[in-house]
Design brief:
Pfam families: ParA. Keywords: 4Fe-4S, ATP-binding, Cytoplasm, Iron, Iron-sulfur, Metal-binding, Nucleotide-binding. This protein is α/β, with parallel strands linked by helices and 226 residues long. The two termini are 17 Å apart. The model has no long low-confidence stretch (mean pLDDT 90). It is 37% helix and 21% strand. It is globular and about 50 Å long. Helix 2 runs parallel beside helix 3 and helix 4 runs parallel beside helix 5. It has two domains: 109 residues, 3-Layer(aba) Sandwich (Rossmann fold); 116 residues, Rossmann fold (3-Layer(aba) Sandwich), CATH 3.40.50.
């Protein structure tokens, strides 16, 4: 499966760190910018503003038009090649980034949006507004994921509820959306993200991996039948 990840969280690009990619030089070819690949097989391609910044601690203080222009470049001027899936990682909320992505993907088929919430009411309230945004802009909602759903003990693997639980599933019911599943708060997953290690290889027998794998398979099946 050939996958591209477009990171349009311009003010907080985290994809390079999460996937253990440094700050390689992004160069150009005849077709445009060449994305950064995470593997020798070139099965996972990335593009992020994080690759273009000299100082990783530099703040991106841009108004809407400049953000929109860069996102347009990311969509049209990156030589993604033949992809099976292009995943666009957006910041929370409904801002210029979301509108720019939709505007620039008009000529392509947008399969839909995956919305991620934590169980608390303050988070589900934000995601409800994102659901309204999707409906107003004609974006199909592929489903809702509840993140940080319980805490997995690194010693005994028992899952305990630190926050409230079930907010994502309840939101899905209230809005008529599909509930894709819950991902617990797992210290091992957090460590892998922090250190850029492959959680799927190191902890393939864990409850958390099982949850992520199940969600992935459900999404793939949904995309194949779309």
């Amino acid at each position: 499966l050939a996958v591209g990840i477009l990171d349009v969280d311009l003010c907080g690009p985290s994809i390079p760190r999460m996937l253990s990619v440094g700050r390689p030089d992004v160069h150009q070819c005849d077709s445009g910018w060449v994305p950064v690949y995470t593997d020798a097989q070139k099965s996972l391609a990335l593009m992020s503003i994080g690759f273009l910044m000299e100082d990783p601690d530099e703040a991106v203080v841009w108004r809407g038009p400049k953000k929109t222009a860069l996102i347009a470049q990311f969509v049209s001027d990156v030589a993604w090649g033949e992809l099976d899936v292009l995943l666009v990682d957006t910041p929370p909320g409904t801002s210029d980034e979301h509108l720019a992505v939709l505007e620039n993907l008009k000529k392509h088929r947008v399969d839909g949006a995956v919305l991620v919430t934590t169980p608390q009411a303050v988070s589900t309230g934000d995601v409800r507004r994102e659901i309204t945004f999707c409906k107003k802009t004609g974006v199909r909602i592929l489903g809702i994921i509840e993140n940080m759903s319980g805490f997995v003990c690194p010693h005994c693997s028992e899952c305990s509820n630190i926050f409230s639980r079930g907010g994502g599933e309840e939101l899905a019911k209230l809005t008529g959306s599909e509930f894709l599943g819950s991902v617990p708060l797992d210290p091992q997953l957090s460590r892998c993200i922090e250190e850029g290690e492959d959680f799927t290889q190191l902890f393939s027998e864990s409850t958390t991996f099982s949850a992520i794998s199940s969600i992935s398979q459900t999404l793939l099946s949904s995309l194949q039948t779309a």
